[in-house]
TrEMBL record:
This is Dynein regulatory complex protein 10. The keyword Cell inner membrane does not apply. It comes from Eudyptes filholi. Pfam families: IQ. Signal peptide: none annotated. Component of the nexin-dynein regulatory complex (N-DRC). Interacts with CFAP52. It comes from the Eukaryota. The gene is IQCD.
Amino acid sequence: KGMATPEKATITLDAMKMLDPRRLKPDSVETERIITVLDETIAKLELSSLIPRIITSLDRFADMLGPEITNSLIEHQKLSNEMEHLLASSEEGDTMRAEEQRGCLCLREQRLKCSVRNVLRLLLANPSLCQALKYEAWARESPAEVFIKAFGEFRNFMLETLLTSPMEEEEKIQFMKDISLQIKKNTEAITALQAELAAAIQTQEEEIHMKDNVIKDLKNGMQDLTTDCKAGIQQIKQEGEKQQEEELQASQARCAGLQQDIQQLGAQLNALVLEHRASELALRKRKSRVEMEIVNWIQKYDTDMGEKQAEYEEVDAAYTEEKAQLSLLMEKHAVLLQEYSQIEEERRIRQKKEEQALKELTTKTLAAIRIQAFWRGYLVRSLFKSKRKKKKKGKGKKAKK
């Protein structure tokens, strides 16, 4: 590697200064205005890319945004949903309504653009809110991030173009030509080096060919060694197969014993199942008898209540008749009538309480019957489980002996 000359170092430094965008600063009012417009556009793009994320979490940002911005975002969401619905219907619809759907799409598109501009105007009026939303909102979607990055590169390109003078442009072109000439020289040098490399590779291949002959001799010796190893492996394999056959016979004998034990346990299981089914059938019959008794009690209760209702209606009719007769003397016997009304009310309340007590007694009786039935079933199942455990323990002790 050769040392870099001072001339080459000067050219490289000038090129780095020429192509470095960080050294570019606006030097005129027009340039500053153009760059300001591009920066404001980037800020608006960043805010507009956050609008879908803010709408999905509108409850979270409602206090921060305020009612006016929240209402604008809700209206924007409605317009977006309508736009998506129209696009979906236009894909599924026929060609007859294409013109009508195209007109509706254009109108919705204009309204959506106006809504975006309105939301951006309200957000940009509060810089602190914009800064807070950039920190609070989630990351942007990848297409929006790519577009914003590309627009930022376009802004830097425009700045570089506006700040590059014609003389600097010519210097840049001359610099690119010098680089092309240098690349051409380097290519020629690389070609010469590749030729030298090919010659060296050929010499190395000849040496490798000589080494291959030595490797062949070593392979022949290894083949003889492999033959001897195969004979030993074959003998070991035969001994292993013999031992495997013996172990297989012993394993088959153990499996036969285990199969016999499984058959015995299966017979015991079937006997227990039959026994439990018989007990379950007896319990079901008892349950049906109890249910029939409950139905009979309910019918008897309905009959008694019907008789009492008829009796109550007769008493009520007699009371109505007496009340009609006493209506003529009501002015003279107001005090007695008031006492009679109180007595009648107490009688009605007492009768109602008696009916309610009778209903509660019936309900409690039915509940007690069912609880007793379930408890007896539980006792029977517990008894069978304890017997089964005792049998299993007895069998385990026999097997250990």
